[in-house]
Amino acid sequence: MLTADKARRRRDSSMATGNQLQNVGQRTEKADRQSAPAFRYRTAVVGLGYVGLPTALALHSAGHEVLGLDVSDARLGDIRTGRVDLLPSDHNRLAEAIGDEGRFDLVADASRLAEADTVLICVPTPIDHHLLPDLSPLAAACRTVVAQAVPGQTLVLTSTTYVGCTRDMLVEPLRRRGLVVGSDVFVAFAPERIDPGNDKHVQRQVPRVVGGVTDECVRRTRRVLEDCASFVYPVSSVETAELTKLYENTFRAVNISLANEFADISRGLGLDVTEVIDAAATKPYGFMAFYPGPGVGGHCIPCDPHYLLWQLRADRVSAPLIEATMQLVAGRPGKVVQRALEILADRGRALRGARILILGVAYKPGIADVRESPALEIIDRLRAAGAEVSYADDFIPSLVTSDGELRRTEQPETMEWELVLAHTLHPGADVSWLSRVPAVLDATYRLREFDNRAIL
């Protein structure tokens, strides 16, 4: 664990090393090419999930020779056949890349990493059922990268993690191997910034933050990422970059929780919270619109702040606002279930035996991803209370619940439901049939046109 004192000592050491290597950092690109080892690939990407695959495709489109590494043969097979959840533009890139043998290669053999000039680590950093960081995928990936590292390489960690992780999992193990960071190899942290399913924020239009162990580490990383970002913003240390990412997603968690609280306030006052938020959003300064919902899901908001809280608890540092926020985040699905019970009770119906449909289970519209989706906990809680729960989602053919696999309901508009919970509304979905349902619990706050609608 990296304490504040350790971080300061390491930053001071890094600055000294950076000054010693300043003459190296001023070399020209031509000199770099003349002195660098002959690598077969410009970039290798470790982990080809929601971050790694789009990143690999963006770099290939920018002219890089790309090596993609993933431990899952099934995942590699899905990528080769195009059975992956990507934006349409990235599907086009994938089709072009798969046919570009020698410039876009997919492998499961970690020894091939030695063939790449730069290695980007893009593996997931989830939390467990106790809301504690699960560092096993990241630790395994870093061990692999360190074991295969060769002089001249640049190693870049992009996965969201605790402050000090880059040094703990890359810098120190490299040192134990006898490789000096800043001269033999180069290490940086550049947090990913990918918004799945959103074509308004494609990678090439989004800035990237980079913190390196030395100035030369920053320069080399910047040279790579500038090919797939609008610009690169360097910071003074890897720790600064690590905390930057944690702040970004903690900011979102806090504001979503505030929006949920205003939704409760607005319902109590008989007002439409989305109208309130839309009106507030007309202010051109000092306000950013966040909207309420059934909870938060995905790889970032429900997970990342726990990496910070876990580290702070170990150092006996309190963060009461963040702690309260994450308690509210964890409790939101339970409020959805309680509201469903109230709506059924108002109709003289118990939760036990009630036929309930969850409309949309992906964690956000337009994607086939249920990681940390509030719908999973909502389904488990409703079924535990005795309800007969089904779901419909064109993007998700099946999902795993606490009771086992649950397959989606086809043509839900033809069936009888006592309550439909509108959880996730995918773009272009026809929901007109909801007018025929006895009751709709609108957790999206967007179905204003239905008279049978109750809000969360």
Question: Count of helices?
Answer: 14
N/C terminus separation = 41 Å
**Main sheet makeup:** 8 strands, mixed
The general outline is globular
Topology:
Elements (H helix, E strand, L loop, with lengths): L3 H17 L1 H4 L3 H7 L5 E6 L5 H10 L4 E4 L3 H9 L6 H11 L5 E4 L8 E6 L14 H13 L5 E4 L7 H12 L9 E4 L18 E5 L2 H11 L6 E4 L2 H32 L3 H8 L23 H11 L5 H27 L8 E5 L14 H11 L3 E5 L5 E4 L2 E4 L11 E4 L17 E3 L10 E3 L1
Parallel strand pairs: 1-2, 1-4, 2-3, 4-5, 5-6, 7-8, 9-10, 9-13, 13-14, 14-15
Antiparallel strand pairs: 6-7, 11-12
Helix pairs in contact: 4-6, 7-8, 10-12, 10-13, 13-14
Give short descriptive properties of this protein.
globular; 15 strands; 456 residues; 8-stranded mixed β-sheet; alpha/beta; Rossmann fold
What does this structure look like?
Mean pLDDT is 92; it is low at 7-35. The two termini are 41 Å apart. The protein has 456 residues and is of the alpha/beta class. The strands form three sheets. Strands 3-2-1-4-5-6-7-8 form an eight-stranded mixed beta sheet, sandwiched between helices. A five-stranded parallel beta sheet has the order 10-9-13-14-15, with helices on one face. The radius of gyration is 24 Å and the shape is globular. It folds into two domains: 4-245, NAD(P)-binding Rossmann-like Domain (Rossmann fold); 304-455, Rossmann fold (3-Layer(aba) Sandwich). 40% of the residues lie in helices and 14% in strands. Strand 1 (41-46), helix 4 (52-61) and strand 2 (66-69) form a beta-alpha-beta unit. Residues 357-449 form the UDP-glucose/GDP-mannose dehydrogenase C-terminal domain. InterPro entries: 6-PGluconate_DH-like_C_sf, NAD(P)-bd_dom_sf, UDP-Glc/GDP-Man, UDP-Glc/GDP-Man_DH_C, UDP-Glc/GDP-Man_DH_C_sf, UDP-Glc/GDP-Man_DH_dimer, UDP-Glc/GDP-Man_DH_N, UDP_ManNAc/GlcNAc_DH. Residues 14-26 have a biased composition (Polar residues). This is Nucleotide sugar dehydrogenase. Keywords: NAD, Oxidoreductase.
